[in-house]
Write a structure and sequence with these properties.
The structure holds two protein chains of two kinds.
Chain A: H1 2-9, H2 11-18, H3 21-36, H4 43-68, H5 76-94, H6 97-121, H7 126-145, H8 156-162, E1 164-165, E2 168-169, H9 170-188, H10 190-207, H11 212-238, H12 249-259, H13 271-291, H14 295-318
Antiparallel strand pairs in A: 1-2
Chain B: E1 6-15, E2 18-28, E3 33-38, H1 44-51, E4 59-64, E5 67-69, H2 74-79, E6 82-85, H3 97-101, H4 117-130, H5 146-158, E7 164-168, H6 176-191, E8 195-199, H7 203-209, E9 212-217, E10 220-225, H8 232-240, E11 259-268, E12 275-280, E13 284-289, H9 295-303, E14 308-315, E15 318-319, H10 324-329, E16 332-335, H11 339-343, H12 350-354, H13 359-362, H14 370-383, H15 400-412, E17 418-422, H16 430-445, E18 449-453, H17 457-463, E19 466-471, E20 474-480, H18 486-493
Parallel strand pairs in B: 3-8, 3-9, 6-7, 7-8, 13-18, 13-19, 16-17, 17-18
Antiparallel strand pairs in B: 1-2, 1-4, 4-5, 9-10, 11-12, 11-14, 14-15, 19-20
The chains are: A mainly alpha, B alpha/beta.
Chain lengths: 319, 497
């Protein structure tokens, strides 16, 4: 009774409270940048934000699941780089696009499986294992390219990033399909249910007679596969293989997941939140570019975004 | 006589340094409620884990309907029709009720690997209805209260259509109404031929529900008994191996001293409203009520863990303000409900734990004298009769009763005069219970004041001088002398009484 009285007095505050923190921040970003820059809300710029966010989305989706299992994948940026370099290397050597795509995804899968197997079977902390893998992947990328850019990758691969279908750039389709797949995986499959359970109460799965380890490793394998898939777009975007192309991108991915409301504890995750989180990070980067803010400050702004997201959720929990 | 549906023969299970189960034989028939009794550490939980496939026994055989079987993993147990209601919840917080009920045996949708949410919700609804639980099956489990979670846990086990149902203290978190529902359900299952293995600490349940009683002690089977021809005292004797006076009843204090703890119209942000109560020197005052009535919240607000929104707390006539450490300085001590998470640093030694609260007083200069610390802790270990090989032993390996003694011991090194006990005997066996109460009695005899939260009516009635009863965040009444009986406490605690 008392609660409803408060609600009636303050309908605006109440509806704001119900809005997830990430939606609130997204709104604020959109409003601020559309005031600061007249180009911000133009169709080309909006498309641009979507295209530029695609790679981040592709690695943030599996990152959501990894974090839901109370883990983390620090290696994702370096792995993305390494896979991209592999794709470029095979393209340069054989000019065989399907083979190159296959190799990139295979490398991603193998590294992801390794991450998962070490974490699950040897009971190592995910942070340390994937941090080690970050170093290895970074090195391997440099070794494969000999520190140089691989540029003779042909013309076809660039289409994956630049071609349009019905006037909409291909990456947008990739992004939407990826999201749809991960949404379905998390909410409509056994695998997804077990992702919730691994973080929430791993013993409950064991007692239910489920082979938990397989699913747990699967989450990291999925992360690796998506790094492989995203690396094709990365190589297409630069039309080359660069040994430091996506170094540090795990920062953006983890930020997007946290901003999206997924928690590091108890399997509390939200896939659509990650989608919004990626867009928020994308808009922030794009908007700051338009306004002319240096990229060195952009990183700080994303860090700030994460802190605001946490504070906002903490504040809302109290109100 | 007919064949038991499940029979364990000479099961032994060893852990490094401990024989958890020693040649234990146990059987259960269809349509029977077989009560399993024993102190903590007697081997009940180990036996359950052998049954559900979590542990593999080193010796012994298991027979299912007379045929030897092996239970290698939880999957095997499931396929034999064994379902377990665990005491420690096996629920996933961010899945909904239906998903939890069907965890690990989800119905597939049209595409392999996908889920048939519709069907799971429908069946989950059916089971909640059976248990008279009126909650939407789409509710995420972490938003439910403890009692409701326990009911979901029960629904989960029931929905497996088990032939053998194992319950580990299922009523520990339930209110009386839910307990009644559960018992009716057990009777129904029993008439349908389900075999039920029921672990309990509550004598009344053992006698009202049990067809047969088996008692374990120190990993060995002491014996089986027929409830019709056994008395509670005999069972307790079997459990502890020595005579313990079940009635810890004490005489009411006739002349309590001055008021040392006074709450006036206390409200906290955690939902308690308008709490006023007094505790005098030399008095044990009970705080009764159903689980969720706000008793723990009163303790937290009093101690300063939860923020007070209005009203005040006075200790020895002075208002308590600020952080919990200031409460300690004022002589307030809180012995929390969950000793494992709030009361103890589990991996640290008994010694380190026991002098933790007193460090400031014993070593005012902050420079610690290890010899002195050791001496003080050894004194306490002896005085409290804590069963530990040495003070260096990590606290986590001790039994619940001994852990609780450490938590109490922590406060004996301080100048605390007002003790708040939150469920001091939860999960503690009968023998240790008596010792804990003896400790509390010693405290009040020495002039301390005690506020004790307890869910066990007999404790409130027999141990306390007076008792306040709470309901839905408020105090619904105060009982003393002749009026302090189980019936009155229950009446005041129930919403529609």
């Amino acid at each position: 009774m008392r609660d409803s009285a408060i609600n009636l007095e303050n309908p605006l505050l109440n509806s704001l409270k119900r809005l997830p923190g990430v939606a609130l921040m997204l709104l604020v970003c959109i409003v601020v940048f559309s005031i600061l820059s007249s180009d911000f809300l133009s169709i080309p710029n909006i498309t641009n934000i979507g295209v530029q966010s695609t790679i981040l989305l592709m690695i943030s989706l599996p990152m959501t699941m990894v974090i839901m299992t109370e883990g983390i994948d620090m290696s994702i940026g370096a792995l993305l780089t390494f896979c991209g370099v592999i794709a470029a290397y095979f393209l340069a050597q054989t000019q065989n696009l399907p083979l190159s795509i296959f190799m990139a995804i295979m490398v991603g899968l193998v590294v992801g499986l390794l991450n998962g197997a070490i974490i699950v079977y040897m009971k190592m902390p995910p942070f340390v294992v994937t941090l080690g893998m970050l170093g290895i992947c970074q090195s391997l990328a440099l070794i494969v390219t000999d520190g140089q850019t691989i540029s003779n990758v042909g013309d076809t691969i660039g289409l994956a990033y630049n071609a349009k279908l019905l006037g909409i750039p291909l990456p947008i389709y990739f992004a939407l399909v990826s999201y749809a797949i991960f949404h379905a995986l998390l909410y409509h499959t056994r695998f997804g249910t077990y992702v919730f359970a691994i973080g929430g109460n791993r013993d409950s799965l064991k007692l239910a007679g489920i082979r938990v380890n397989i699913y747990h490793i699967g989450v990291y394998a999925l992360s690796g596969i998506m790094a492989g898939v995203a690396s094709i777009l990365l190589t297409a975007r630069m039309n080359s293989g660069h040994p430091t192309a996506a170094i540090g991108m795990e920062f953006d991915a983890i930020a997007a997941v946290i901003v999206g409301g997924t928690s590091f504890e108890k399997g509390n995750g939200w896939m659509f939140g990650t989608f919004l989180g990626v867009i928020t990070v994308g808009i922030l980067r794009n908007g700051l570019n338009l306004v002319g803010v240096q990229s060195s400050i952009q990183v700080a702004s994303i860090g700030l975004l994460v802190l605001v997201a946490l504070l906002l959720d903490g504040f809302k929990a109290k109100v | 006589m007919k064949q038991p549906i499940l029979e364990l023969k000479s099961i032994s299970k060893y852990f490094p340094g401990i024989t958890a189960l020693d040649q234990v034989s146990f059987d259960v028939y269809s349509g029977e409620v077989h009560m399993l009794l024993g102190e903590n550490g007697a081997g009940k939980s180990t036996l359950m884990k052998v049954l559900c496939g979590a542990y593999h026994p080193e010796e012994g055989e298991i027979f299912y309907q007379g045929k030897p079987v092996k239970i290698q993993n939880p999957g095997d147990a499931r396929s034999l029709g064994i379902a377990v209601i665990f005491q420690e919840f096996s629920l996933v917080p961010y899945l909904n009720i239906a998903q939890n009920i069907f965890l690990g045996r989800e119905y597939s949708g049209a595409i392999p690997g996908t889920l048939d949410h519709e069907r799971m919700h429908q069946e989950a609804k059916h089971w909640l209805k059976e248990l008279s639980l009126d909650i939407d099956t789409k509710t995420l489990v972490h938003t439910l209260g403890v009692a409701q979670q326990q009911m979901v846990e029960i629904a989960k086990a029931l929905s497996q259509n088990a032939k053998i149902l194992v319950m580990d203290e299922p009523t520990a978190a339930l209110s009386d109404r839910e307990t009644t529902l559960l018992f009716a359900m057990i009777r129904k299952l029993q008439s349908e031929g389900v075999a039920i293995i029921y672990i309990s600490h509550r004598m009344s349940e053992v006698f009202s529900m049990g067809d047969r009683i088996t008692v374990l002690r120190d990993g060995k089977k002491v014996g089986s008994a027929d409830p019709a021809s056994t008395s509670p005292d005999e069972l307790v004797q079997m459990m502890v191996g020595r005579r313990v006076d079940m009635a810890y009843a004490r005489n009411y204090v006739s002349n309590p001293g001055k008021v040392v703890l006074k709450l006036s119209n206390l409200c906290s942000e955690n939902g308690i409203k308008d709490i006023s109560l007094e505790v005098r020197e030399g008095e044990i005052v009970g705080l009764a009520g159903l689980v969720g009535a706000g008793r723990t919240e009163v303790a937290r607000a009093t101690f300063g863990v939860d923020k007070i929104s209005s009203g005040k707390v006075e200790v020895n006539g002075k208002e308590r303000t600020g952080e919990p450490f200031k409460s300690v300085d004022m002589g307030l001590a809180l012995i929390p409900e969950s000793r494992k998470t709030e009361g103890l640093a589990l991996i640290r030694s008994v010694e380190e734990n026991i002098i933790l609260s007193g460090l400031k007083k014993i070593f005012p200069s902050t420079w610690m004298n290890n010899k002195k610390a050791q001496q003080i802790s050894e004194d306490l270990i002896r005085k409290l009769r804590i069963a530990t090989p040495s003070g260096k032993q990590s606290a986590q390996v001790l039994s619940g009763g001994n852990q609780q003694k450490i938590v109490i011991g922590k406060w004996l090194t301080t100048d605390s005069k007002v003790f708040i006990f939150d469920e001091p005997t939860r999960g503690i066996d009968v023998g240790a219970k008596a010792e804990i109460f003896a400790l509390i009695y010693k405290l009040v005899e020495d002039g301390a004041a005690v506020l004790m939260i307890s869910s066990e009516l007999s404790e409130i009635v027999n141990v306390c001088d007076r008792a306040y009863v709470m309901r839905e965040g408020r105090i619904s009444g105060m009982l003393e002398k002749e009026a302090l009986n189980e019936e009155n406490v229950l009446k005041l605690g129930m919403a529609d009484a």
